Amino acid sequence: MKKSIRKFSFFVVCIGLLSSLNADDKVYKFTMATTWTETATPLIDSAKNMADMAFKMSNGRIEIKVDSANKHKAPLAVLDMVKGGQYDMGHTASYYWKGKDINTLPFTSMPFGLTSPEQYAWFYHGGGMELMKKVYDKHGVLSFPGGSTGVQMGGWFKKEINTLDDLKGLKMRIPGFAGEIMAKLDVQVSNIPSGELFTSLEMGTIDALEWVGPSMDISMGFHKIAPYYYTGWHEPASEMQFIINTKKFDKLPADLKEIMVNAIRLSAYDMYIQNYDMNAVAWQQMKTEYPNIQVKTFAKPIMDAMKKANQELRTEMGATSPLLKEILDSQDVYMKKVREWTKMSDYLYLKDNL
């Protein structure tokens, strides 16, 4: 068990004792499908930690069996499986369902959008949870934040990118909405399976790729062949997602519903801080073993072009869905408010102490 979870042991025991008072001894069993494999730390850890906490806090009245993608073999069908009742719960990411429902996209992360602390504040205090419920109600599931990777890096590049011309014709693995932005800048975008990425980069099938950050990049080995590591822009707050079949959840007594929701919230936070630590440790190892790695930021003309393409695509998408526009507008309004504090606190503190 992670150290940060141990600190909550007293809290867990107290809730477990309280939940056992005046409660029946019925055990409620759930199955959870994840998008992640058994080795995808810390993503898989969030699901397992949630199940463990729910069991302890409920005094054994909630049992959740977690199946990784190694077991169910359908990592990008988790929403369908939970909707259809093959699984009761899922741990995944909302933007995977963009093709099924475009309104799900913003609940993971948007380019140039909210940071993780800002986005958590939007979820729980800025109307984000209510908007997410509006989107997922029609799918018959409840959705909750499930742990953040924080700012994801902009990718590994074999050559330095100095101008927009350097991007033209560049072959890059960058899927999803970010890939659409890069395609508008004449990048040749592809979405190669994870197991083929290292070889594709090594053999020149692609010139660059984005993955996550040091915590998960290090095991992939990209730093061994692509020396330019660019900072992030496309996923500043990549939030994972817990989903629960609504009918299954509604069968729980009130005290167990509260325990489920609080176990989700705590495990999400724990994944965020776990990944933060893993990034720090992995980066120290990377730069020590491969001192030729150069951390780069994209030049302002490139960033400006990305922002322009991003806004054009957002406008196009918002025109197709009033609900999506409502969600994006909500995030924009909240960011204008919260970013002032982010600048005053984190940004100026770091600016004056680096």
From TrEMBL:
Record organism: Arcobacter acticola
**Which keywords has UniProt assigned to this entry?**
Metal-binding, Signal
* Name of the molecule in the record: TRAP transporter, substrate binding protein, DctP family
One GO cellular component term of this record is: tripartite ATP-independent periplasmic transporter complex
Q: Where does Na(+) bind?
A: 211
Query: What does the entry list as the binding residues for substrate?
Result: 152, 173, 210, 235
Q: May I ask which residue range the UniProt record assigns to the signal sequence?
A: 1-23
Does the keyword Transport feature in the UniProt annotation?
no
Which Pfam family, an example, fits this chain? DctP
Q: Name one GO molecular function term.
A: metal ion binding
Listed GO biological process terms: transmembrane transport
Q: Which SUPFAM superfamilies match?
A: Periplasmic binding protein-like II
